[in-house]
Amino acid sequence: MLLATGCLFLVAPAPTRAGTQEQLASALASLPHRDAVVGACVIDLDSGKTIFTRHADRALIPASAQKVFTMAAALAELGPEFTFETTLATNGDHLVVIGDGDPALADEKIARKRGESITAGFERWSDVLLSRGLTTWPGDLIIDESIFDQQTIHPSWEAGDIGKWYAAPVAGLNINDNCLDVTVSPGGKKGSRTSVAVEPHNSLAKFNNKCKTGPGKNPILHHKPGTFEYVISGKCKKPWKFSPVAFPDPGMLFADSFRTFLAGKGVRVAGQTQRARVRNSDGGLPPNLGVLATHTTPIADVLHRTGKDSQNLFADALFKRAGYARAKRLGVPSAQGTWAFGSQAVMDVVAHAGIKADGLSAADGSGLSRENRCTARQLARMMAWLQQQPFGPMFEDSLSIAGVDGSLRKRLKKLPGRVRGKTGTMRGVRALAGYAYSGERPRFAFAVIFNGYKGPSTPYRGLQDRVC
Fold first, then answer.
1. What is the predicted pLDDT for the residue at 119?
2. What angle do CA 406, 430, 16 make, to 5 degrees?
């Protein structure tokens, strides 16, 4: 009898579905601001049934939760075995680099994960040239970025975001997240000139250094978007590293950084840097091209940075690369990855998943555009569909784990590992799409989106956590 009684205390009954619905309804019953709106949807993954909705068909701005659709389109169009391939080749007396839209070249986090420096790719290429005794090139350095179009900034991105690291341009050739990492260091005595160091090393960025050594106002870095001019002012008493700042021409930054690196290794390119399409109209490489080396990045690495870290450049590169694959599959002549083709790739996967697209809009891949729209039902259903696909585990592994890593590492610390998801935050927007776990497996797919509030988003983050 005592044993039986003890079992009653130890084994608590699972909450009923009605109880879950009531608690979810209570969590979202009232919002902190009068003008705020919410869309929410929860799907039981075992039965496939929707067990809770609140304005689930209202089209809202998802912010970075848009990346869920981007990753789905990339996995569906490119496949889980896809790798980005950036090619180093010769064409007569010319040295040629052919881009594939890879956003991971010289990315600090990926390099650290591999135990490499951010210049490891250039290092391998220079070793190939030196091993063949190729130390002087009489011709030009030709870069082919034609995998994507030249509209590197989405026209609907807000003017105040342009030039910021999180709104870096996306191109066929990318390097160091298409940003400059700038550090200013004090000189020998008070009032003396400070020194400036920049990564990646290049001769394009022009610095007007007005910063002086000594105590006072911290150093300030100003960059007028669209220019190569950077102004540093203020005072510096210890080394000061600025937040990364976007560079407006990724292809030329790649080329100049590569030339600079080669020069440091004793390899000289005598000619100019030229942009040209080297690829054939079908996207293949011409037979007269002498391929020297190929830098590869698995799609899993790019998904990881897109999902866990919400890295916008990576998402937009996936978006355009999926768009390129779609255009090529449909036989578009001289296909390129564009914002429009990326949007079509998203719509394709939504249709393939059997999700009604009413109100859905995919302007970009990152969610930076306020022209993106989706409903909570569409977002939750996409999460549920992905979980059922062969590439579902790869997608799942790319999501932030609550209380552990990524954009959810500081949230839900009392439930570490019990929620994985993709966050979305911008002015007046808080979104979260993810999975809630029972043991080792996802039990529910959910989406909660708030729009229209003014002021801090902290209360809405709290409501999302309560739903989780």
1. 94
2. 85
Instruction: Please say whether the beta carbons of 309 and 321 come within 8 A.
Output: no
Of residues 315, 319, 345, 350, the one with CA closest to residue 332:
345
**Torsion, Cα of 325, 330, 331, 337 (10° steps):** -30
**Burial (CB count within 10 angstroms: exposed 0-12, middle 13-18, buried 19+), residue 199:** middle
Amino acid at 370: R
Where does 79-182 have alpha helices with state H?
A: 108-114, 120-131
- What pairing do the DSSP bridges indicate for beta strands 229-233 and 206-209? parallel
| Spans of the chain, pLDDT less than 50 | 1-15
Instruction: Give the tens place of pLDDT for each residue, 175-203.
Output: 999 999 999 999 988 999 999 999 999 99
Q: How many residues does the chain have?
A: 468
Evaluate if pTM is beyond 0.85. Answer: yes
Residues sharing a CB contact under 8 Å with residue 68, sequence separation 6 or more, in sequence order: 379, 382, 383, 386, 422, 433
